[in-house]
Amino acid sequence: xxxxxxxxxxxSRFKTPHFPSSQHSTFPxxxxxxxxxxxxxxxxxxxxxxxxxxxxxxxxxxxxxxxxDLIHTAKPILAHPSLSTINTVCYxxxxxxxxxxxxxxxxxxxxxxxxENAKVFYEVETTADWLAFDDYCRNKGLKYPxxxxxLACMVISGAASAESLDILQPxxxxxxxxxxxxxxxxxxxxxFAMANISDELMAFLTKEWYNSVLxxxxxxxxxxxxxxxxxxxxxxxxxxxxxxxxxxxxxxxVLPSLYNHDCDPNAHIVWIDNADAQLKxxxxxEEDEELRICYIDASMDHDARQSFLLQGFxxxxxCLRCLSGD
Length: 326
Hints:
Order of helices and strands: EEEEEEEHHHHHHEEEEEEHH
Low-confidence stretches: 1-7, 11-38, 230-245
Strand content: 15-25%
Strand order of the largest sheet: 1-2-3-13-10
Radius of gyration: 20 Å
Number of helices: 8
Shape: globular
Mean pLDDT: 84
Largest sheet: 5 strands, mixed
Helix content: 25-40%
């Protein structure tokens, strides 16, 4: 298996966690304090981003949150269907297609709105032949280069900055991984060049940029598994996504990527029918308590979890569950 595809943030099976409150320093990305009492404004999410004592940035509650409550929603910066589902899900939002899809060139969209929204990358993407690039990803079992290609198309179209993902923590790349990236970078750049994309528009597309973006996507991308349905009580259906069909694709978000890990989490991400994420509480959360999700399959045993987190995310987990040896 390729070194570039082993790790992403998985959904997990849960126990009811209890976490002590921690000291922290306020980080600039805190919840706004505007007047939300106006009828036209929704309540702000009950969270703020702050520095933790040992894990960098983290997400903290600003009030008590009840078990099963929706904490906030998040739309992806980037999303891309897996190559195996590319003809069965919306090319923009990853919603499973019905007979009412809106077709593009070789792909389909679930609505006219998604087809319009996809113009931020789709018009650039369809100028090039990506057969060699897609075959490279398919043959090596790679998924994250597809997200890099999508971001590159958005940068070329002027819809995104080349630094869009700089806020996210990158993974540490071994020399072997960097060498493995070279083929993908060459295929991506040649695809644009053969489509007569100007050197000026491709100035950002250096090997360093490609490696940097892929390093961030590698540990911040979420595997999207649709629950398909609605839940009044998440605690009664926390494993719904685990038991759903195979992942429909992968997506990258800003705020959800700032959540730290715990093998016994108090929060969970669920996708109902598309790549729009819903963050929900798995248990009662106290004010100023850090909200944590599980990056991996929490049903693994202690040693497997430790190995997976160290190799894939670069840290040894010291959560209460791991410290207890469970």
